[in-house]
């Protein structure tokens, strides 16, 4: 089995602001005009974008949200746990991996506007995944959670939020 370092080098991944390492692999040439998008978008957006994303044990992708749907795809390594908080406070735990008999899936959808975070919870493991965003990702839409504010909104999730915010 290849290591996290192998994939980081071979795929040319770099550090991501939310944690882990990534590389954008696709940005659609098609552009959706601002007028056709909801008010959650500040400007026109590419129709779709895609990235590779890698997290090693001990790292996490901090809680954040974007105004687009995001589909996660599993590629290699160990199970990735993705925590999604719906606006009503319902916590959804997605297990991205290959163990279909134990509820893991190769893909999962994070709905636009929901808070989400992820981590590889397997000691010394890593997870190599991909993310496809539509309308396409733009950092101007990216909102990194403030720990105190998110804990006030979702007090029943204080422990999880505290573990996965900066």
Count of helix runs: 3
By CATH, the topology is Jelly Rolls
Q: What is the annotated CATH architecture?
A: Sandwich
Strand order of the largest sheet: 1-2-5-12-7-10
Strand content: 35-45%
User: How many domains make up the 3D coordinates?
Assistant: 1
Please state the overall shape, judged from the principal axes of the Cα atoms. Answer: globular
Find the count of extended strands (DSSP E, 2+ residues).
13
Give the CATH superfamily: Jelly Rolls
CATH class: Mainly Beta
What is the helix fraction of residues, given as a range?
Answer: 10-25%
Unreliable stretches, pLDDT < 50, 5 or more residues? none
Distance between the termini: 32 Å
List the helices and strands and how they pair.
Elements lengths: L3 H8 L2 E2 L5 E7 L3 E2 L12 E2 L2 E8 L4 E5 L3 E9 L2 E6 L5 E6 L10 E4 L4 E6 L5 E9 L8 E2 L2 H7 L4 H6 L3
Antiparallel strand pairs: 1-2, 2-5, 3-4, 5-12, 6-11, 6-13, 7-10, 7-12, 8-9, 8-11
Walkthrough of the structure:
- The protein is mainly beta and 166 residues long.
- The chain has a single domain, classed as Jelly Rolls (Sandwich).
- 13% of the residues lie in helices and 41% in strands.
- It contains three helices and 13 strands.
- The strands form three sheets. Strands 1-2-5-12-7-10 form a six-stranded antiparallel beta sheet, with helices on one face. A five-stranded antiparallel beta sheet has the order 9-8-11-6-13, with no helix packed on it. It has a two-stranded antiparallel sheet with strand order 3-4.
- The relative contact order is 0.23.
- The model has no long low-confidence stretch (mean pLDDT 96).
């Amino acid at each position: 089995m290849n290591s996290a370092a192998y994939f980081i080098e071979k795929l040319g991944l770099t550090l991501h602001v939310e944690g882990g390492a990534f590389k954008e692999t696709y940005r659609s040439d098609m552009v959706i005009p601002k007028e056709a998008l909801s008010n959650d978008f500040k400007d026109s957006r590419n129709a779709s974008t895609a990235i590779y994303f890698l997290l090693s044990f001990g790292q996490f992708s901090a809680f954040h949200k974007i105004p687009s749907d995001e589909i996660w795809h599993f590629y290699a390594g160990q199970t990735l746990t993705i925590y999604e908080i719906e606006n009503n406070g319902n916590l959804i735990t997605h297990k991205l991996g290959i163990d279909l008999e134990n509820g893991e899936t190769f893909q999962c959808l994070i709905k636009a506007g929901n808070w989400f975070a992820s981590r590889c919870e397997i000691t010394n493991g890593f997870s190599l995944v991909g993310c496809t965003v539509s309308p396409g990702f733009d950092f101007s839409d990216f909102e990194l959670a403030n720990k105190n504010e998110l804990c006030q909104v979702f007090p029943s999730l204080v422990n999880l939020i505290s573990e996965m915010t900066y």
